[in-house]
Amino acid sequence: MATRIARRAPVTSQLSTARATTSNNTLRRGNWSGDVTALESALSRIIARRPITNDCRVSFFEIAGDSDLHVNVTHRHETVGVEGWSGPANMPDGFVHNRRFQDRESILPEIRAMVFAPRL
Fold first, then answer.
1. How far apart are CA 55 and CA 68, in angstroms?
2. Phi/psi of residue 42, each to 5°?
3. How far is the C-alpha of 92 from the C-alpha of 13, rounded, in Å?
4. The pLDDT value given to residue 24
5. What is the three-state SS of the chain?
6. Would you say the pTM of this structure is higher than 0.70?
7. 71: which of 15, 62, 79, 91 lies 20 to 30 Å off by Cα?
8. How far apart are CA 57 and CA 91, in angstroms?
9. Which CA distances in Å does 7 have to 34, 47, 106?
């Protein structure tokens, strides 16, 4: 399921304007379904108030054999690293950072930090 979270950044001569952030999830067991719905809504509200300078996609997924929530943040352009995130992997869709979460309380601030990571 994909949710488009759009926010246009102001155009300046020094700032590349990103068009949107997209969220999708492929949850298998439903353990994280309510949390992911809440995270998508919260990210939408945050992005509505703050300019995005680098198109990105946030992917939520589970992997068989563990109970963690896995999150990929893919940016069109490479960003600085954020503590706790693996990557970046240079993929055809962009630069991917990955993180696993067990603690529901820490997820939103960590994803927000990665979504808004400055471009290199």
1. 26
2. -65, -45
3. 27
4. 65
5. CEEEEECCCCCECCECCCCEEEEEEECCCCCCHHHHHHHHHHHHHHHHHCCCCCCEEEEEECCCCCCCEEEEEEECCCECCCCCCEEEEEECCEEEEEEEECCHHHHHHHHHHHHCCCEC
6. yes
7. 15
8. 13
9. 24, 6, 24
64 contacts 28 by C-beta, under 8 angstroms? yes
Q: Report residue 16 as tokens.
A: 């590349």
Q: Hey, how many other C-beta atoms are within 10 angstroms of the C-beta on 39?
A: 23
Give pLDDT tens digits for 72-114.
999 999 999 999 999 999 999 999 999 999 988 889 999 999 9
Q: What are 58's two structure tokens?
A: 């946030």
